[in-house]
Amino acid sequence: MAIQLWDPVREMVSLRDAMSSLLQESFVRPGTPADGTAAMLPLDISESENDFVVKASLPGIRPEDVQITANGDMLTIRGEIKEEEKKKDEHFHLRERRYGQFQRTVRLSAPIRADQAQAKFENGLLTLTLPKAEEAKPKQIKIGAQAQAGPATKSS
């Protein structure tokens, strides 16, 4: 590890830069990191007695650019939004679309059977149907007959 000399000027941040950074981080859209990285993947997760249904919006992404892994009760969706090639004489007036890698990992409330999972990708919407593991499905417990008490004795 190399020793570096301390340079106080390098470590000072002007009030204007600090305020600019604060305001930028405060007014970004939900799910969009302020550092310019790819946005977080928005999900809808619903649950029924037998399975989970996960829906993810992936507009402009090809199905082959998405990887889905499941382990126990953890689900991970990752992929990459590839940037279009820039043309030599092209100058942007506005550029809001995000590019780069994304990943979202969620913990479900019960383990799933990954070997029976189904994935459907249509019009930029990924729909996963994840069956719950048998041990996670609710089971009904029947109430047995109560034991009869012996003959009642009368005491005076």
Overview of the structural elements:
With 156 residues, this protein is mostly beta strands. Helices cover 10% and strands 29% of the residues. It is elongated and about 95 Å long. It has a domain at 35-84 and 97-135: Immunoglobulin-like. The chain has a four-stranded antiparallel sheet with strand order 1-2-7-6, with no helix packed on it. Strands 3-4-5 form a three-stranded antiparallel sheet, with no helix packed on it. The longest helix has 12 residues, at 15-26. The protein has helices spanning 8-11, 15-26; strands at 43-47, 51-57, 66-71, 74-81, 100-107, 118-122, 125-131. The protein has two helices and seven strands; from the N terminus they run H-H-E-E-E-E-E-E-E. The model is unreliable at 28-38 (pLDDT under 50). The chain starts with 7 loop residues before the first helix and ends in a 25-residue tail after the last strand.
Summarize the structure.
The chain has two helices and seven strands; from the N terminus they run H-H-E-E-E-E-E-E-E. The chain has helices at 8-11, 15-26, and strands at residues 43-47, 51-57, 66-71, 74-81, 100-107, 118-122, 125-131.
